[in-house]
TrEMBL record:
Protein's organism: Smittium megazygosporum
Name of the protein described by the UniProt record: Uncharacterized protein
UniProt-listed GO biological process terms: fungal-type cell wall organization
Localisation: Secreted, Cell wall
GO CC annotation: cell surface; fungal-type cell wall; plasma membrane
Organism lineage string: Eukaryota, Fungi, Fungi incertae sedis, Zoopagomycota, Kickxellomycotina
PANTHER family in UniProt: RECEPTOR PROTEIN-TYROSINE KINASE, SPORULATION-SPECIFIC PROTEIN-RELATED
Keywords of this entry: Cell wall, Glycoprotein, Secreted, Signal
Length: 719
């Protein structure tokens, strides 16, 4: 529909049919006195559009959809009192959504906008509530909402965002609550699917009327959480997991006073000094309590009298001790075995690298074709899934490319060789000085082809710092590193982050917090959108010049002088520095595209030889039932543009990307079984493939070894 079409219907009182406005070169759309629309309003991909006026609209017997209008700042529908669905997605400058008091609605989604408040809706029931990644959103209020029959998702909005749902009694779908400073669920009585409460900033979590969780309850990584109160909770039909909440030291009789039934395991991991759940006398499943603080395991066991010895674990993790300080006599706590099981604390910004061939089982004789056949049986694999950078991904690895899962680790071949170099064969202790020498050697082309150091001194300091903070020090010169792979990925990722952001920004605490919140995804959370680095939107929110992204890549590549192998100081020359100066004045500053460039810069700066990559454990979130739709869409792309699909074609891939985000990032029935069995191991490469450009061909990063052909789809290589 053109501007003229909009003008033609603006004089009408009622309109029957769908209204779709796409790719118009207008700053404002005014629908005049139009009062009733019996159909859908779809406004998408309008780069110039700033304002939508629907001041007379009272009834919309359909849905309102606003997608990818990058300059849209406001929409006014103040008289509206009836609408079936609201879908607002990726309108980064949209600051105001003025909609009247609507009596009913089926679905409500507001994601990736600039709105600072969502309130004023008086509907009492809704199928799905999705409010994700709105960087300025600090206030969410749905005071009349009583029932959500599907998904309930509030994820990573403003830094001080709070949410109020004081009348909400029933949620039948899954629940994800992330990035809030407070939430009011004071009337909630029942949840029909899994509940994930992750990385919030509130100090207490209370649900005073909750009675039943029909699935599991997961409370994870809420750093300020100090108390829990589920006063009326009686039943959790699956597992209870409370982990990574640094300030939560006590679970007492006020936390779960009436809880008498948990259908599966109970896993408590954190800084607990005391655990007491008074009414769990009939619980006989597995129970595990792990704490970094001194905990009385005998007292904790009183809450689990029927848990057998082989299903009971209670232990204190070994604390990191300063160099020269010995572990005290009871530092290992009380355990049900003598096995030490230290866990590492993640430091820095972990960036994944990508394998070039994958297998279903960790057996040396399994080929990639075996993997494809096995995955095809459960509906996960099509020949091509997505080709944004001359990379062929199988469905199982789509989330590895599209997001940054917190628990996915990338490794390099030679793990056991490195460990053999470092380990004392009699004990799992390392000579600290020798360990640092060997680890630095591993970075210097011994097991990794090349890592371009932003600052050699700082890079070596990263190694020293990791050993100091995450190693277990037994004496002045003896240290044990529980997971060498974790170490390698952490340090090369930290180095990449430094090179891309520069020294000042890379070390800035606020920037680092934003990066970690917006580029890392926990395994229990599914997302409906890609998650670009949010702080870029703060910087470039008002600079929306839509130009060629490839020109941006060329400027970044040339200015960083990465093609000739030279190294520039990240402090004085980094991607953001270039963009902020005149040398980038003519390139695109669109934050969505810019995020893609910087994320791929970071990825490519940790490129590793294909033959050096060993194991990657990937969590699957895909909907196998829709795989044919994905395959068909890819076939069209390949037929129109060939296999070499670049960033310049990204706008034409929106349907494909939308599908991947929708279908492959959501849980499916097959996931549970596959999660336990899917491990991926690198296989042999054809001799002529020296190096595979992992997601980098059209990015602005340095390619360590230019290869004529990175991926040969005629061979057994899939990725």
């Amino acid at each position: 529909m053109t501007k003229e079409d909009v003008s033609a219907i603006s004089s009408c009182i009622s309109y029957v049919g769908n209204i779709e406005v796409s790719q118009v070169n207008e700053k404002e759309l005014d629908f005049g006195n139009l009062a009733e629309i019996y159909g859908d309003i779809v406004i998408r991909n309008n780069n110039s559009l700033r304002q939508i006026l629907l001041g007379g609209l009272a009834i919309l017997n359909g849905s309102l959809t606003l997608i990818d209008n990058v300059n849209l700042v406001g929409i006014k529908i103040k008289k509206l009192h009836s609408i079936s669905q609201v879908l607002v997605r990726n309108n980064p400058n949209l600051a105001k959504i003025e909609i009247g008091l609507t009596n009913s609605i089926t679905n409500f989604e507001v994601s990736q906008t600039g709105v600072d408040a969502i309130s004023g809706f008086n509907f009492t029931a809704c199928n799905n509530i999705v409010i994700n990644n709105n960087i300025n959103l600090n206030s969410i209020e749905f005071r009349q909402l009583a029932k959500v029959s599907g998904q309930f998702s509030v994820i990573d909005n403003g830094y001080e965002s709070s949410a109020m749902f004081p009348s909400l009694e029933l949620i039948e779908g899954n629940v994800t609550i992330q990035g809030l400073t407070s939430i009011d669920l004071s009337s909630l009585k029942k949840v029909g699917d899994v509940v994930n409460i992750i990385k919030n900033d509130f100090s207490s979590l209370e649900m005073p009327k909750i009675e039943t969780f029909e699935d599991g309850l997961n409370i994870l990584y809420n750093q300020n959480l100090a108390s829990l109160k589920f006063e009326t909770l009686k039943t959790i039909k699956k597992g209870l997991v409370i982990s990574g909440n640094a300030d939560l030291h006590i679970i007492d009789e006020n936390s779960f006073p009436q809880l008498d039934s948990v259908g599966e395991k109970i896993l408590l991991n954190g800084t607990f000094t005391s655990v007491k759940i008074p009414n769990l006398g009939n619980f006989n499943k597995a129970a595990s309590i792990t704490s970094t603080e001194k905990i009385d395991c005998n007292s904790a066991k009183l809450s689990f009298p029927l848990v057998s010895k082989n299903l009971w674990i209670c232990k204190q993790r070994i604390k990191i001790k300063p160099v020269g300080e010995e572990t005290d006599s009871d530092g290992r706590g009380t355990t049900n075995s003598d096995t030490q099981n230290p866990e590492l604390k993640r430091v820095g910004f972990v960036v994944k690298v990508y394998p070039t061939t994958v297998r279903l089982f960790p057996k040396e004789n399994n080929s990639t074709l075996d993997y494809v056949k096995a995955m095809s049986k459960v509906g996960y694999v099509g020949k091509y899934d997505i080709l944004p950078n001359n990379v062929v991904l199988s469905s199982a690895l789509a989330t590895e490319f599209l997001s940054h899962p917190q628990i996915s680790f990338s490794t390099f071949k030679g793990r056991y060789q490195v460990q053999n170099l470092l380990e004392n064969h009699e004990k799992d202790y390392l000579d600290r000085h020798q360990a640092q020498i060997e680890l630095k050697t591993a970075f210097n082309r011994k097991y990794i082809n090349e890592v371009i150091c932003a600052d050699i001194k700082y890079f070596n300091n990263l190694i020293d710092l990791y050993i100091k903070e995450n190693g277990i020090h037994y004496s002045e010169n003896k240290v044990y590193i529980p997971d060498l792979i974790e170490f390698v990925v952490s340090v090369i990722g930290e180095n990449a982050c430094l090179r891309v952001l520069g020294d000042e920004l890379a070390k800035d605490k606020k920037v680092r917090t934003i990066i970690e919140r917006t580029t890392r995804q926990t395994f229990l959370t599914s997302f409906s959108k890609l998650r670009p680095i949010k702080y870029l939107r703060h910087i470039y929110r008002n600079i929306m010049q839509i130009r060629s992204i490839e020109q941006m890549a060329d400027i970044l590549r040339n200015e960083l002088r990465l093609n000739d192998g030279s190294i520039k100081s990240a402090t004085n020359m980094n991607a953001l520095w270039i963009i902020l100066n005149q040398k980038a004045v003519s390139i695109s500053r669109n934050p969505f595209r810019l995020s893609w460039v910087l994320i791929n810069l970071i990825r490519c700066m940790v490129s590793i030889l294909c033959t050096r990559i060993a194991n990657v454990f990937v969590n699957l979130y895909s909907d196998a039932s829709s795989s044919q739709e994905l395959i068909n869409e890819q076939a069209v792309l390949i037929s129109n543009y060939g296999r070499d699909i670049t960033y310049t074609l990204l706008p034409k891939m929106k349907r494909l990307i939308s599908f991947v985000k929708r279908a492959l990032l959501e849980p499916s029935p097959q996931v549970g079984a596959l999660l336990l069995s899917l491990f991926y191991s690198a296989g042999s490469l054809n001799p002529f493939i020296d190096f595979c450009k992992i997601g980098c061909k059209h990015s602005s990063a340095y390619l360590l070894i230019e290869s004529e052909k990175c991926f040969n789809t005629d061979t057994e290589l899939i990725l």
